Fold these 4 entries.
Entry 1:
Amino acid sequence: MPNPARIFISSAYDRKLVPFRSDLKRELEEAGHSPLLFEDNFYPWQTDFMKTCLQKVMESDIFILLLNDNVGTYWAEDKCTPTYQEFRTAIKEGKYVIAFLDSDIKQIYEEHIRKDLDRRYKKYIEEKHRNPDYTIDIVYQVINEDLGRSQREKIESIHPFIWAFIYDVQAARIWTEELVLAQAPKAYKKIKGYLSDRLGEGIKLVPMKEDIHDNAIAAQDFTVYQDYTLNLLSYLHMGTITDWENFLETAMEPLMGDYIYQRPATMLAEEIGKFEKCNALTVYKKAEDKIRLCGYAGATSPSFEYDLTNDDSYVVSALTRDTNVIGYSEDKNVLYYAITTKDLYSP
């Protein structure tokens, strides 16, 4: 069965956009895709309707944004709109975004807003060494302090958040195509062009699918290994472990347990048990005819030393046999794993 691309179509609710959204949905369906519109397929709704919308964004593969002069619902306290929240979620989730901006609004923005807004935004970063919390705060400064009366009159019917939204879209390096509702077929054709371009890029990667997957896993494992190793090395100075307790506590962190299989790594592998995460580590060092404790961590009260003739000790068995030893205590329900190493220098 084919797996159609899920395409989220986002815009403020505006009667002028209803026919465009509906026709765009039909065009995408006829092309074999699965478009998502809140008015058609967002059920079942949750009590918090935004959770439903944002969940649909996260489930989608492609995000189409339509911006015109209608801000839609504006939450003054949060300085945000539902459409903006959907857009930010799409960016955060790494979705492929295609943005369309009403041609008249784009012209006003380019002529009267963009230059001053960009200047003030960059000045804020230079002075505060961070991005402003809300772009709309900078927009209000532009409107109140930079625009002349005739300019303010030209934009007075347009909610200031529109300009902040446009700026944030472009700041995310999303190219905005012009939207002319009277020329809707051109927009549909352009969207299909974007999708075709994306398909062309993706099809080149299909032969490398397994390598990409393996490399991604390897990169993730390497990052974990790197962090783990650096943390352990922080307790090592001039070849000496300086803090055994914290060293061993750190060493235990990734030992999270696993399942035990009969016929492992085969098609007939069968789970027959499991062991929990490691709860204690001890380190011993040979000293003449005994082995003495260097350090320990976790839920244990270890013996300070063992005679090399002690046959009941897994540590002694590992050392005298010069091999790793696995043992299990039924009374304590504990699995022991004793590992031998080369000479270890410790205080």
Note: The longest strand covers residues 290-298.
Entry 2:
Amino acid sequence: MATDNTDIDEQLSTSGPDPVPAETGSTSTEPAVADPDAEDSTAAEDAVVGGLSENVAGALVYLFAPFIAVLFYLLEDRNEFVRFHAAQSIVVFGGFFAVGMGVFMMGFVLEFLPFVGWMLSLAISMLTFLVLAPLGFILWVLLTYKAVTGERYALPVAGEIAERYV
């Protein structure tokens, strides 16, 4: 018992929507499926250490300064934006760290002076803290904001030093 399926095949092919629409008049020059081997030049330029964008990496060197800045400066060799911000972060916040350690050591030595040593140590430590802490916080916020917005903002002295090492 054989049946002729040509009538059924014709009805199925002409009735209802086409399950795979044909591309008619497609003028797009881009392939329908992205080639995983092809590199997008803008994405390759923006990607830095760990696949981060350069703005995020530039902000991270300030947020966790100066330790992450040293790491990013050593690992990132192509992106000048990240290298500049890392170098500037090392100069600025490494300088703050060095001054803080120097004041601590000086305070420690002054405490051995009889009678007035502890007062001098306290006065110098408090004066340094009252000047450096607000200045450091303002610079931290400003430089992080500038890096996130993509601006290569150079501080007067630290920026010049950082430019030499980029």
Note: The helical segments are 6-14, 41-46, 54-63, 67-75, 80-110, 117-148, 158-164.
Entry 3:
Amino acid sequence: MAKADELRRQQNVEVLTKYAHKAGVDPVPYVHLLANGGTVLEIQDIIDGDIKRAEEEKKTS
């Protein structure tokens, strides 16, 4: 069981890291969210929201 959990965790980290790199953001803070109990889908939504906010801030600056 522990081996399966570790494999799932590693796969989730890989998925989030790739997603963050494609989005052009640092994956480290998002991987920490995963370690603190967030799901991949929740964190992908957070990444999307962060990117959207950053784009809106650029427009108003």
Note: Residues 13 and 31 are 6 Å apart (CA to CA).
Entry 4:
Amino acid sequence: MKVILMICNSGHSERHFLKSLASTAELEGYKVALDFGGILYDKKIIEKYENMDYLFLFAPATEMTNEAMDSSYLKIDIILLTPQVRYMLPAIRELSLGTEVKCIAIEPVTFAELAVKECFNLIKSF
């Protein structure tokens, strides 16, 4: 299972983008789930997602700390940064040093136009 964590500012438009991204993956035949990033720290909830191809999660950017990354029960494969928090890309890359986590700042045009197919193709390439 690939775990995709989208970090955002407030969560409203970000959740809409992530839902659209998950729907695109489902249309391509993948088993997907969407949930709040807080489940990364709950083994029981994580178990229900074990048979998924992709687990799409969202969380506020303020939650991204070394402690949060170290205490997760799941390996995060990709961190997506929404345009509102893309300025944090260098800090998020620094947090993920020494791991295989890919960090992607979503382009404002991609986000505004809900170009989720392009974004999902990028995710699949990793």
Note: The radius of gyration is 13 Å.
